[in-house]
Amino acid sequence: MSLIPNSVTERPDSGFPPVARIDARILVLGSLPSRRSLEAGEYYAHPRNTFWPIMAELAGAGGSYNERCGTLIDQRVALWDVLAEAPRPGSLDADIQTAAAAPNDFCAFFGKHRQIVRIGFNGQTAARLFEKLVPTECRAMIAEYRILPSTSPAYAAMPYAAKLSAWREFLELQVG
Fold it and tell me: Among residues 82, 98, 123, 136, which one has the fewest Cβ atoms lying within 10 Å of its Cβ?
């Protein structure tokens, strides 16, 4: 028996619905939840992912998962992923099989969330997938985009303080 999953016969990973209120102004986009996040049913659930520690420092998002999400929602920050589903034999972004990936419906999302003015991509992969898979007319609905350092534990090349600084600059421009 092979230890490598056969992505043709396995069900693709599916993402989560957005964490958003209708008056959101910022959208943070990841690529697709990791295995740990899928198991927990929570965005950024891996204990070494720095997303929630960064949000705790910058937005005061502490407590339970629901409390952290509620804090972001109150500050008009929405969370979602570029992909609705994709085959991925591992947990890394590099394992995502983009040829069979399906993006979320951003035209519908932006049509409902008309106050979103900026998107922050949690890493290069999210930005590349958005550019590749989301129709131009949907991408054009938002004027500003910023690629932020990935909070994934797989991206260890940048120290936490540098990640925090980049995320602080992005959120300070919008939150408030």
Answer: 136
* Cα 141 to the center of its chain, rounded Å: 18
- Give pLDDT tens digits for 71-119: 999 999 999 999 999 999 887 888 899 999 999 999 999 999 999 999 9
| 27 CB-near residues (< 8 Å, 6+ apart) | 20, 77, 78, 79, 80, 113, 116, 118, 119, 120, 142
Q: What is the pLDDT, as a whole number, of residue 154?
A: 87
What DSSP letter does each residue of 61-85 carry, written as one string? --SSHHHHHHHHHHTTEEEEESEEE
pTM across the whole model: 0.91
Say which residue the tokens 């947990």 belong to: 91
Contact yes or no for 31/81 (Cβ under 8 A): yes
Fold classified for 20-174: Uracil-DNA Glycosylase, subunit E (3.40.470)
**Neighbouring-strand partners of residue 120:** 28, 146
Residue 29's H or E segment, with its range, is strand 26-30
Residue 32's φ and ψ, nearest 5 degrees, are -160, 140
Residues 6+ apart with CB under 8 A from 135: 106, 107
- For residue 84, what are its two tokens? 């609705």
Q: Are 71 and 59 in contact (CB under 8 A)?
A: yes
